[in-house]
Amino acid sequence: MDEKLIARFWSRVDQGAADDCWPWRKKLNPKGYGLFWDGNTTTTAPRIALILSTGGDRQGLQTRHTCHRPACCNPKHLIWGDGAQNVQDSVQAGRRKHLIGETHNRALLTEVDVRLIRSRHAEGQSLRVLARCFSVARCTICAIVKRRNWKHVA
């Protein structure tokens, strides 16, 4: 990246004290990350800040925020990491909840349904019949019966 582009980038960052968050002052994406157009591609501002501070892009790695603020561009708050580490960061910060059972927005069944499926199967009803009855795939019923899914339901 040339000096002019680097100067343009840093002019859009509100640089405070060394340990403070340095928020991006321009356009943010819907998740709150700053966006920077370098003439060829749009990249998140924190990633550009990390690239500039570490001397290069790390393909395949993501930008992690130790401050948990998406708009922050302070290189002291940014580290490289993989997707699993990034997800773990968001869980620990309370930004991502592990949704199980009925609390999951795509759940098709309730805990009452799961108990009923297990009891009917124990009485001899087939997976195919249960799947038709509850409008789900046979493999879904099988996973419930074998307790691979809905493990939290007794």
Task: Explain how this protein is built.
The protein is mainly alpha-helical and 154 residues long. The chain folds into two domains: 3-92, Homing Intron 3 (I-Ppo) Encoded Endonuclease, Chain A (Alpha-Beta Complex); 101-145, no CATH class. It is built from six helices and four strands; from the N terminus they run αββαββαααα. The chain has helices at 3-11, 45-54, 83-92, 111-122, 127-134, 138-145; strands at residues 35-37, 42-44, 62-65, 78-81. It has a two-stranded antiparallel sheet with strand order 1-2. A hairpin with a 4-residue loop joins β1 (35-37) and β2 (42-44). α5 (127-134) crosses α6. The longest helix has 12 residues, at 111-122. The mean pLDDT is 93.
Return the string of H and E elements. HEEHEEHHHH
Strands ordered across the widest β-sheet: 1-2
Categorize the overall geometry: elongated
The radius of gyration is 24 Å
At the fold tier of CATH, the topology name of the largest domain is Homing Intron 3 (I-Ppo) Encoded Endonuclease, Chain A
Question: How is this structure best summarized?
Answer:
The protein is mostly helical and 154 residues long.
List keywords for this structure.
154 residues, two-stranded antiparallel ribbon, single chain, 6 helices, mainly alpha, 9% strand, 4 strands, two-stranded antiparallel sheet, elongated, 37% helix, 2 domains, Homing Intron 3 (I-Ppo) Encoded Endonuclease, Chain A
